[in-house]
Amino acid sequence: MFALLAAANEASGVHFATWQSITVMIVTAVAAVMAHKALAVFNDGARPFMLDFIGGKTTRPATATVVFGLSAGFIFGFGAPLALSTGVLNPWLLFLPAEILGLVAPTWWLAAAAGLGWGAISAWGLSSINNLSANLPVDFISALGELGTPILWLFAIFPALAVARQFGRTKGLITFGVQIAATVATMKLWPNIFAASIAMAAGVVMLVAFAVTKDRSERSAEAVALASMSDAERAAHAGNKAVAAAAVDQLFGPNAARLRKYLPWFAVLGAAVAVLSATGIFAGGEATSFLVADRQFVEAAQVDFWRAFGFIPLIATTALASGAYAMAGLTFVYPVGYLIGHFIGNPALALVVAAIAGALVFSVEVFALSGLGKWMQRWPSIRESADHIRNAINEALQAAILVGSLMVALSMGGGLGALLVGGLYLLNEALGRPVIRMAAGPAAILVSGVLLNLLHWVGLFTPVA
């Protein structure tokens, strides 16, 4: 079967080597088995539902139905268009279907077989669709590449948005100004470095500095208030804190123990994700998909490293609350894989080193989860910053995807393309957003691309040169 698929891809000009495609299949099989055993899921929204499944309060089909409902928009509206536009696989396309198949499968080996199948479809089907689109009068798949420029640059501005929402407009404007200055200086002084990654790093550092300063100020104020209290009031204050800490330990303790119990499984998963990231055909984020497509692996590692800080509290908290970990862990395994694949020229050696490094990263993360949860309780502003970072990332990406979608619309259909894509986007908003906002633009491009080709075939539209 593999030889037949490889031959078909050879004929269609596939960009993935056979060893890369087989690696994808193995990783999706591992992901499906991990979901089948309720050890890990990629969808952060699905993780809380795993607690009831693990406890036997819901059935396997019911859980799979919920996860499918939460994931369908991201698979078909975001993961698939992103992969088609970049030629690089992503976790929304690989992990979300794999975990649904894993949850549906009644046995672990059926889950593994289904995961293998989905990996084959993803690896060999992507280029075939690209080649089919290239032969159409309106090549709307290739035009999706226009999405990359606004995503790459607007994504970097999320720290300024997060600072503005958490610490006020003045500090937000200051952060924005520093990020613009860092971008201009990098473009002028180090033109070979991706300037947006430096701007993003500067913004994240400022965000953390503001959060730490706020928490230190509140601790100082609390110390002053305690000094003015009576001994009984101080004892009551300490008792309240002890009760809150005990409640957290009671909630998180058993789930942290469950995760540590299955540490060898997580080591295998970490090895698989790191190996996948080292193949050069996979990226863990929206912006990094375009960077990996341009073979800018160091820049992709920088972007995903800083991006990870926005998701640590969410992933750690939901993992400790549910007993199921994230399919990509705290996502630090992505940059580790990119860098190993980039700096080790021998692919076989790179995969071995990536597997070892990925297993170590996941092992450390699982052991550190419990301590991480307690640490976040002591730094509330940093924990809250993560919520603002995630919201800011979504806002930046929504704006970038909308701008990019209109650029794609103009390039493939001129004014009519803009009317179709922009109109479908606005209609989706007016209808109560049946397609999630982040996926609405790419979905509108796909629908408009099909319509423009149909109009051309009946003589009502001439493709834009």
UniProtKB/TrEMBL annotation:
Xref: InterPro entries: Uncharacterised_YhfT
Residues spanning the membrane: 23-42, 63-88, 108-126, 138-162, 193-212, 262-285, 305-336, 348-369, 399-427, 439-459
Keyword Transmembrane included in the entry's annotation: yes
Domain of life: Bacteria
The organism's taxonomic lineage, starting at the top: Bacteria, Bacillati, Actinomycetota, Actinomycetes, Micrococcales
Pfam family, one: YhfT
UniProt entry keywords in alphabetical sequence: Membrane, Transmembrane, Transmembrane helix
Protein name: Uncharacterized protein YhfT
